[in-house]
Amino acid sequence: MFIGEYSHNLDAKGRIIIPSKLRNELHSSFILTRGLDNCLTIYSLEQWEKIFIEINKLPTTKKATRQYIRVLTSSACECTLDNQGRILIPTNLAEPLGIKKEVTIIGANDHIEIWDKKTWDEYIDEADKSFEDVAENLSDLLDND
Amino acid sequence: MFIGEYSHNLDAKGRIIIPSKLRNELHSSFILTRGLDNCLTIYSLEQWEKIFIEINKLPTTKKATRQYIRVLTSSACECTLDNQGRILIPTNLAEPLGIKKEVTIIGANDHIEIWDKKTWDEYIDEADKSFEDVAENLSDLLDND
DNA sequence: TGGGAAATGTTTATAGGTGAATATTCGCAT
DNA sequence: ATGCGAATATTCACCTATAAACATTTCCCA
Q1: Which CATH fold would you assign to the domain A5-139?
Q2: Where are the domains of chain A?
Q3: Which of A77, A127, B18, B43 fits a disulfide with B47 by CB distance 3.0 to 4.6 angstroms?
Q4: Model's pTM, two decimal places?
């Protein structure tokens, strides 16, 4: 499971180091694509397939389904770690999210997310306001036996 | 069950010793994450997994679910006791709580908490004053279920 | 075919993490 | 009170991860 928050910088060529702790749980090849809430998402190949098993259950006759599939697949790219543990973020993925230099990489349970630092700070700032609520639910989850 | 209050100092590299009395009931690996009221919490791996069994049932297509997962996972880190009984507190966890050197480690029933000493002193000072009042109201909490 | 830009790969310096050794303190038992 | 052993504090040394600069290759276009 992917956990933790890590700060990294794009190098001059638009590459970032994937934190070693996250790398340990990742195969050398994976899918980088658009995530929800203005971040990029890394899925393992296995998981990527799983997602499409679910998606293929949705009716392509619906506008929303087609749109979702198009965004997800058109922006997806298969990435490979180089031997320094880096990946190249394609410009067409980085640019719309304002990713230039400082990024925050987070473990998010079953996947990894890459955020522009500023965007992340604002997001988590907002989310923190409801942290106490989150934590209370948490203890409920533990107690319910 | 974890009990007691212990004072310890971070070393130059940001590590603390987990008190030996607490260590006895702890496996060598566990999850360190944000707790309520400005402290850090240690969960066993079993407790942590239990939480995510529940969380994995929630739909990630919902905004609130994603926020919930991100708050939890990004602030978590898996810690391992080194052979002197120490763990490293990651900067991104220590800093927002003002943890620099002096910390108070307390046993809190089913988990362990790590506090900045000053924060703890103030908290317990306040809590002591209202100890009887709080106790008085506790039974109400039970009735309301 | 040569020049240049982009992509890819390598090297090196530094910081941060990890492990070990030693010194010191503390509690317990004699 | 004294001595012993365990627990804790502190220091040092090493190693890995990261950052940044630099070198090489590839490929497109003039």
Answers
A1: Chemotaxis protein chec (3.40.1550)
A2: 5-139
A3: B43
A4: 0.93
